[in-house]
Specification:
Distance between the termini: 57 Å
Shape: elongated
Number of domains: 2
CATH topology of the largest domain: Heat Shock Protein 90
Strand order of the largest sheet: 2-1-5-6-8-7
Structural class: alpha+beta
């Protein structure tokens, strides 16, 4: 009991790592599996400052937005690679439920296709493996009730098992895939995996389409669709640049003509086809590959 009370106050000290080694948050941006271009930021200090600073960094440097204008509605669709509300709740939960007697930091690893937030130890055994698969994590007891009380006073967490529903709702509203919750048999760790929205994924096709090369008409048509899916509406010159050309080629013009005849793409402003600001858009946003 004394350790728990001490933990609840000392982690808000200016140097919590004097009492609890590695009581900090590490954010690692790993754009390549080999580690090329990897950057690391360490957030230390009082627990609330760590959390606020790490979230601010993620919001400003990690989270990205796309604005997509649809031809059949006035409002643009805004999507994010990772919805901030889901990241905020996941990291806040990690801070809340971490054991500060274990000398390991909370780690946030950002990869091209996902974000992983890991803390030690894993979820309480009152939460079954089946609960984890179903994303139904309702704790019967709290590991750091005093820390939770302070974080709630600072309006950094809500408590009462509202975290997971908030994460799920944020991912759903953003059109993202649902998160995963991982641990091992001994519950030594807990990792929350937040998938990056599919429109931000850099696939092999995306890399190929930006290289200037000879393509068949069929290949070019597929590249046009992928480019519009990922970038939203583009002018013909913008589309040409995204595809690696310096100008609109005759093959690209033919590909666009066929796609329009097939009802796959169209001009955004039908009444102003020859407008200088005219854009090409997809008729339907779907899961074309």
């Amino acid at each position: 009991m004394e350790t728990a009370i001490k933990c609840g106050t000392d982690v808000f000290n200016e140097r919590p790592d004097d009492f609890f080694p590695y009581a900090r948050i590490e954010v690692v941006d790993r754009p390549d599996p080999t580690g090329i271009g990897m950057t690391e930021k360490i957030f230390s200090g009082p627990l609330d400052r760590q959390l606020r600073d790490a979230l601010s960094y993620i919001k400003n440097y990690i989270i990205k937005e796309k604005v997509i204008k649809l031809p059949d509605r006035a409002e643009a669709v805004r999507i994010f690679n990772l919805p901030y509300a889901a990241v905020e709740e996941s990291l806040s939960n990690a801070v809340y439920h971490k054991s500060y007697q274990i000398g390991e930091p909370i780690t946030v690893t950002v990869m091209p296709d996902r974000m992983e937030i890991t803390s030690l130890p894993g979820p309480d055994r009152t939460i079954s493996n089946d609960d984890l698969k179903k994303r139904h994590l309702v704790a019967r007891r709290y590991r750091n009730r005093r820390i939770g009380d302070i974080l709630k006073e600072l309006k950094l967490v809500e408590g009462r098992n509202t975290g997971i529903p908030t994460i799920l709702r944020a991912m759903e509203m953003n059109g993202s895939e649902m998160p995963l919750f991982e641990t091992d048999e001994d519950r030594t760790y807990c990792t929350v995996i937040l998938p990056v929205h599919r429109r931000f994924l850099q696939t092999e096709k995306n890399a190929i389409q930006k290289k200037k090369q000879r393509r068949s008409l069929a290949e070019l048509k597929k590249c046009v669709i992928i480019t519009l899916e990922e970038n939203g509406n583009l002018s013909t010159s913008e589309l040409a640049r995204e595809l690696g050309y310096t100008k609109v080629t005759s093959t690209l013009a033919k590909a666009l003509k066929e796609l329009m005849a097939e009802g796959i793409v169209q001009y955004l402003e039908q009444e102003k086809v020859r407008s200088r600001n005219q854009k090409i858009c997809l008729v339907q946003i779907d899961n074309r590959k």
